[in-house]
Design goal:
Elements (H helix, E strand, L loop, with lengths): L4 E4 L1 H4 L8 H15 L12 H17 L2 E5 L6 H11 L3 H4 L4 E5 L4 H10 L5 E6 L6 H16 L8 E4 L5 H9 L2 E4 L13 H9 L5 H16 L6 H14 L4 E7 L4 H15 L15 E6 L8 H6 L4 E8 L16 H4 L6 H18 L4 E6 L4 H22 L7 H14 L8 H13 L8
Parallel strand pairs: 2-3, 2-4, 4-5, 5-6, 7-8, 7-9, 9-10
Antiparallel strand pairs: 1-10
Helix pairs in contact: 2-10, 3-9, 4-9, 4-12, 10-16, 11-16, 12-16
């Protein structure tokens, strides 16, 4: 396989060939123009050579000075980085990776924080703090905690890296006070779309990955989506079919990744799809309570946990499969126990061969049971291939949001929870409603029905 990516939609649209309505085609034409003219936040105009050079220079300085890099973020500020590291270095990259080792902390679980304290020598550990708003409570708490550990160990504040929105906010003022490295989110780009920006590219460079590779793959997909006519364009077919299947009751989008290298990518996809499409109201204010639910699965592991439900359960899902064609190493199984029929047949087969067969069998089985499926085959585990996947799913998400007439860039349901947490934790500019929120929480707890085990 020489192509960077092959997208097969034949079993997503069935035998009709995708005869979409004029409304769907018109929405696609408008979005295609938006991408072509680079008027959309995800298009590739926001990373100039000057920014790339600055990222590379900063990464080189930190790589030469530190043995460990602790990256602090959550959601879109961490998931893309984790997907990059796993895809290009494998699931056990911390055990094989050369210095510096990269650790990504994206939760405030004290068990994980305490374990990191035991692992890391903060005399040899640099900090990268990523937060679009600069005030996300979980990431801010982790930053304060580890900033103090870093300072106690004699760390140089100028080596701290902060990535946030530009403007007059607390984290920008802190960065100026520290005199540390400061990078900005691209204009109008939400966190879940920010992987191909300093948010993802600085960690990639710190890990020794050339960030230009991601842009190369994204550029190839961008060219395909903006030049192919509608009847030959995978974005129209994927988005239009997903929209029509949703209207027919298939409201769950299952992404079945047939490689351990894609497990974190699946989690990145889940946030992108859920936060962009799960909306209460449309752009015109109509209440819809849209629920385009994502689910990421790992093949072959989840064949043994979820496939029974997928095949014989409710007909409320569409299935996407992603697989890798070329792998750098493909262990061959040498025969053993030749007298045992359950074992003898493995002789001479490779693991990639079996993975390929199991993916196709699972897909065919679902199609034969009446479930719509599509498949994406990428050439290899490269930065270009992952950049192409990132861009494809970002574009697909926004196009489907356009068809539903919802805002793919906001997240009002998340913001409400943040405001309540700020108030209960005592943030000064959110204290006005603290009494109300505490009473709400007390009332909720009074209505609880508990069972105690001693």
């Amino acid at each position: 396989m020489d192509e960077l990516m092959v997208i097969d939609t034949g079993h997503l649209i069935g035998k009709t060939g995708g005869g979409f309505s004029s409304e769907i085609k018109d929405a696609f034409s408008r979005f295609q123009d938006e991408l072509r003219e680079k008027r959309n936040p995800i298009t590739l105009s926001f990373l100039d050579e000057e920014t790339i050079a600055e990222l590379k220079s900063t990464a080189m300085k930190l790589r030469e000075k530190y043995e460990n890099i602790l990256i602090l973020g959550i959601g879109g500020s961490a998931l893309g980085t984790k997907a990059m590291l796993q895809f290009l270095y494998g699931c056990y990259y911390l055990m094989e990776q050369q210095k510096p080792r990269l650790f990504v902390l994206d939760n405030i679980d004290p068990a994980t924080v305490s374990q990191l304290e035991r692992i890391l020598d903060f005399r040899k550990t640099a900090l990268v703090y990523t937060s679009k708003s600069g005030s996300t409570a979980e990431t801010a708490a982790n930053f304060i905690y580890f900033y103090n550990k870093y300072k106690e160990a004699g760390g140089d504040e100028r080596d701290i890296v902060i990535i946030c929105d530009p403007g007059d906010n607390g984290i920008n003022r802190i960065a100026k006070k520290l005199g540390c490295y400061l990078f900005s989110f691209p204009k109008n780009l939400q966190g879940r779309y920010s992987v191909m920006s300093p948010v993802g590219f600085l960690p990639a460079e710190l890990a020794g990955i050339d960030c230009r590779g991601f842009l190369e793959g994204a550029g190839a997909v961008h060219k395909l989506l903006t030049t192919k006519p509608s009847e030959e364009n995978p974005l129209l077919v994927l988005g239009g079919a997903i929209y029509e299947h949703f209207q027919a009751g298939r409201t769950i989008h299952v992404l079945f990744n047939y490689s351990d290298l894609l497990q974190q990518f699946g989690l990145w996809f889940m946030q992108l799809w859920a936060e962009s499409l799960g909306k209460r109201v449309t752009l015109t204010g109509e209440e819809v309570k849209l629920g385009a639910t994502p689910l990421s699965c790992l093949g072959t592991t989840d064949q043994h946990s979820l496939l029974q439900l997928f095949k014989e359960g409710a007909a409320d899902k569409i299935f996407g499969f992603i697989r890798i064609h070329h792998v750098p190493e493909d262990p061959k199984i040498k025969g053993a126990f030749p007298s045992e029929v359950e074992y003898a047949y493995f002789d001479g087969h490779t693991l990639q061969e079996q993975l390929y067969i199991e993916q196709m069998v699972t897909e065919v089985s679902l199609v034969n049971a009446g479930h719509p499926c599509y498949r994406i085959t990428i050439r290899e585990a490269s930065a270009a291939a992952l950049g192409g996947l990132f861009y494809l799913y970002e574009a697909l998400t926004i196009f489907v949001a356009n068809l539903f007439n919802v805002n793919p860039y906001d997240q009002p349901g998340v913001e409400e929870g943040k405001r309540i947490a700020y108030s209960l934790l005592g943030r000064e500019d959110h204290l006005s409603r603290q009494k109300e929120y505490r009473e709400m929480l007390d009332a909720y707890l009074r209505e609880s029905r508990v069972f105690i085990v001693k």
